[in-house]
């Protein structure tokens, strides 16, 4: 919960940057754009992914993350301070901020990857989910290396040299490698488990993740027509995964209104549409007048429309689920306390999830319209920024209230008389 409660603050900061600097959407190289992107990817995305992986890995692999309780505060502190320093460095071009950010972020990710790597190596017989998580961890490591090389150029280390291709590879590996493979690995487990849907077939789960990794590495290593062909294969792979996932969700047995399902549907629809747009662009169709704007549309569409949509949906489900699980364990020596425990919908009400979905989907639609709005781009961006700000603020409020309900529901024990009043970490 420490990771989950921290993440919305970075989403709020990113939304504020867009609110007061709508001109940043004119270029991906704008200093405020670089700051906003890293607030979203490191501060929000990585914060939730790291927290979720520490909690979910034992579920999908039966192998706990070593020293998770001891390492988590250090990893979280490194991510928080490192991301803030990096964002300030981009905004004000202060070298001291880069010098501070680099060791903090590297240290946080190395601690996380070392602990998770040990757990993944210890798994004797890995499932399709574990296979994806191993590939995701490898992609994260390479992403961090590329990020360090690019950040080193801001420190005037001339032997490194800035490379636009390295930046593109950093983005591809971060979003399509670490982000996509992690989501795929988790989805293979949680969609059938939480929503009583059919299991992903082995040929798709293992085959798609393998093709994705191979196509991604080919696009990073190769150039010219080979790299373009690899990206088309990558697009086809993502489309198949997205379409089949929607099919499995449609076939689920639990047909109740579930906003986690709504977020999954929103995310997979975004993924398929983005793949279609990229394919049309590669075939010569002009989607937007400027190629730079089209790249921003793809980047924000994938990051906000797919990755963060999945995260928001999963938070509506796994947060109350894990809280209820921990409450049950806390009552193991007091069976009578079971009767007083709140259920999952009391910990995180459906109405809160409904507002989260409506705010975020409205923000996404408005952001997409801004790319095609012409002279109305800045007013539309202003509205989108306000909606994103409300959405991330609502997420913070929802998680904070759920955490408060959890803390108040902890049973009192003789040796811990104030257990019910402590904050869940």
From TrEMBL:
Transmembrane recorded as keyword: yes
Keyword flag Membrane: yes
Protein name (Swiss-Prot/TrEMBL): Uncharacterized protein
Highest taxon of the lineage: Bacteria
Keyword annotations from UniProtKB, A to Z: Membrane, Transmembrane, Transmembrane helix
Signal peptide: none
Segments passing through the bilayer: 32-54, 74-92, 98-121, 133-155, 175-197, 209-226, 232-250, 262-282, 294-315, 380-400
């Amino acid at each position: 919960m420490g990771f989950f409660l921290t993440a919305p603050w970075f989403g709020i900061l990113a939304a504020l940057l867009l609110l007061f600097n709508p001109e940043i959407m004119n270029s991906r190289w704008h200093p405020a754009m670089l700051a906003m992107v890293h607030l979203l990817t490191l501060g929000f995305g990585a914060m939730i992914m790291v927290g979720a992986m520490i909690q979910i890995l034992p579920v999908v692999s039966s192998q706990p993350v070593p020293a998770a309780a001891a390492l988590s505060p250090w990893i979280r502190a490194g991510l928080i301070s490192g991301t803030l320093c990096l964002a300030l460095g981009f905004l004000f071009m202060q070298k001291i901020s880069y010098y501070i950010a680099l060791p903090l972020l590297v240290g946080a990710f190395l601690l996380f990857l070392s602990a998770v790597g040990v757990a993944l190596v210890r798994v004797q017989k890995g499932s399709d989910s574990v296979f994806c998580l191993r590939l995701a961890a490898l992609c994260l490591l390479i992403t961090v290396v590329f990020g360090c090389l690019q950040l080193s150029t801001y420190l005037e280390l001339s032997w490194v040299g800035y490379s636009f291709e390295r930046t593109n590879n950093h983005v591809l590996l971060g979003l399509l490698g670490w982000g996509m493979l992690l989501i795929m690995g988790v989805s293979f487990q949680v969609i059938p488990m939480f929503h009583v849907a059919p299991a992903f077939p082995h040929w798709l789960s293992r085959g798609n993740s393998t093709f994705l990794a191979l196509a991604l590495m080919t696009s990073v290593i190769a150039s010219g027509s080979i790299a373009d062909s690899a990206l088309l294969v990558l697009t086809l792979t993502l489309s198949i995964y997205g379409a089949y996932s929607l099919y499995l969700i449609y076939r689920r047995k639990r047909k109740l209104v579930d906003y986690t399902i709504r977020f999954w549907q929103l995310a997979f629809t975004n993924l398929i549409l983005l793949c279609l747009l990229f394919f049309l662009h590669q075939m010569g169709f002009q989607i937007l007048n400027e190629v730079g704007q089209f790249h921003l549309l793809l980047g924000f569409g994938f990051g906000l429309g797919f990755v963060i949509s999945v995260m928001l949906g999963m938070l509506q489900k796994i947060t109350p689920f894990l809280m209820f699980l921990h409450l049950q364990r806390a009552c193991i020596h007091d069976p009578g306390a079971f009767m007083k425990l709140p259920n999952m919908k009391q910990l995180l009400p459906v109405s809160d999830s409904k507002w989260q979905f409506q705010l975020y989907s409205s923000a996404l639609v408005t952001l997409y319209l801004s790319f095609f709005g012409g002279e109305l781009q800045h007013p539309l961006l202003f509205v989108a920024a306000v909606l994103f700000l409300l959405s991330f603020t609502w997420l913070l409020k929802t998680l904070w209230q759920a955490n408060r309900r959890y803390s108040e529901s902890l049973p009192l024990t003789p040796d811990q008389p104030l257990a019910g009043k402590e904050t869940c970490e």
